[in-house]
Amino acid sequence: MIRAAICNNMVTPYTNRLFNHIFGTRRLELDVISCTVREGIRTWAGDYSKSYRHVILKGFEIPLRTTRISHINSGMWSALSNSNPDVVAINGIYPTMIIAAAWARAHRVPLTFVTDGWRHTMPHSLYHRMIRPLILNHCASIICASEKGRRYFMDLGVDPRQIFIAPLTPAWDAPGEVPGFEERRWHLVWCGRLNDSPKNIGFFVELAIAMQKRLSDFQCRVIGDGPLRPWMLHRLSEAGVKFDYTANIPPDKMANEFSQSRMLALPSKLEAWGLVCNEAMQCGTPCIVSHFTGVADELVKDGDSGFVLPLNVAEWTQKIAPLVTDRLIWTKLSEAARRVSALFKVETSAEKYIDGLLFAASARKSQYEGS
Questions:
Q1: Per-domain residue ranges of the chain
Q2: Which CATH number does 3-169+345-368 carry?
Q3: Same fold for the domain at 3-169+345-368 and the one at 181-341?
Q4: Taking burial as the number of CB atoms within 10 A of a residue's CB, which of 190, 213, 292, 312 is the most buried?
Q5: Per-residue b/e over 194-229, b at no fewer than 16 CB within 10 Å?
Q6: How far is residue 306's CA from residue 74's CA, in Å, rounded to a whole number?
Q7: pLDDT tens digits, one per residue of 104-153
Q8: What is the mean pLDDT of the chain?
Q9: Domain 181-341 falls in which CATH fold?
């Protein structure tokens, strides 16, 4: 039996579900080593039902630009020594992950690089431009979340046979039935951090104001917290927009929230994927997103399962208004959203993840023979 050690920043509701599925296949033993139980900017509980072995390291985090976090955990080396894995997976190249990569190199254990990033979202600092190629050169496989990610690594010269796409999937199953057009109270919903970069809450606020001018009965729902919360609340109230706000909702309650909305807007400036779209679409809620999201043209296909538009408030307003006021148009797009989101299954993602880990593990002999 192959043992894999997955080194990550923290376990989230959706990765917990993925790891449980991976462990449940019994195709490999699984140890998960986390830098923290929960990053400071996250609102997830961190207390999940786990079937896999989970180690949480002591250490500290350094907030970087946007929402990136650098973790420093000296215990990674000993945690990997205790695990004694046949393959090590890392999800970045900040200090703790560098320690994990160094351990793998020192112990002649194959390395896998895991990311949901792609060209637009991968960091391009001098540090990353110097260190990333060195790490990738020692990786036996890459596990990414999208076709965009696959193209990015191919452009860097990675052999396509080493790249495995394991799409992100929600932490909860799609509801069996979803409310129809008339049963949905909110025309538009926002769900995410309330910041300018990367989430672009300012664009959503201006969009809501424009929609209010277009539709006299317009109502929107805002779910999330962040540094721009006071500004957002003041601006919407001042403009007379009818809205309801909640800072945080548990994952198991999100289906009810999305099922009360006719459309979700994700105007991010920088979004590796956009899991909130999977969640909304499996509730029959179509999405409109920017070109800077990973879901654009992969999960959310313009004119088919949603809309992909440049960041222009007038264009978004013109596209949204007919959809959220016409039952026939909305129903067609809602059904397409449900159909497409159903293709992104946690079982499939887990299998691709396992394939990437096993491919790397099988490289042990060829990678180190003669060294």
A1: 3-169+345-368, 181-341
A2: 3.40.50.2000
A3: yes
A4: 190
A5: bbbebbbbbbbbbbbbbbbeebeebbbbbbbbbebb
A6: 45
A7: 999 999 999 999 999 999 988 898 899 999 999 999 999 999 999 999 99
A8: 93
A9: Rossmann fold (3.40.50)
